[in-house]
Amino acid sequence: MAKTSSIEKNNRRRKLSAQYASRRAKLKAAAKDTSKALTERMQASMKLAELPRNSAKTRVRNRCEVTGRARGYYRKLRMCRNQLRDLASQGLIPGMIKASW
User: Fold this and answer.
1) Residue 1 and residue 99: Cα distance in Å, rounded?
2) What sign results for the dihedral spanned by CA atoms 52, 56, 61, 62?
3) What is the pLDDT of residue 11?
4) Which domains does the chain have, with CATH numbers?
5) Angle at the Cα of 66 (from 61 to 67), degrees rounded to 5?
6) pLDDT in tens, 25-55
7) In the predicted model, is pLDDT for residue 5 greater than 90?
8) Listed residue (71, 90, 89) closest to 2, CA to CA
9) Which of 14, 15, 27, 51 is buried most, with the most CB atoms less than 10 Å from its CB?
10) Within 13 Å of residue 20, how many CA atoms lie on the same side as its CB?
């Protein structure tokens, strides 16, 4: 089980990234637009730098929904490999069976 503080920090990052997503997208588009003047593009990039760091989507870490583990994460199932194996062995994941030969 991951530390509760790590899980909560990640949840705060998710909220911040959702809150600032539209503002960040507009500023990024303005900074990359080569048809605008260089000063306008620089101002857009400076405003982008003033936004909170944790509002960037890349700061959010994929974590297991069950334990909060950050490594061995399966995006499709939103859980780590350890919990996936345990739940599959117990028959709690529909359509997943343990291989045997």
Assistant:
1) 27
2) positive
3) 96
4) 1-61 (1.10.287.1480), 64-101 (no CATH)
5) 65
6) 999 999 999 999 999 999 999 999 999 999 9
7) yes
8) 71
9) 27
10) 22
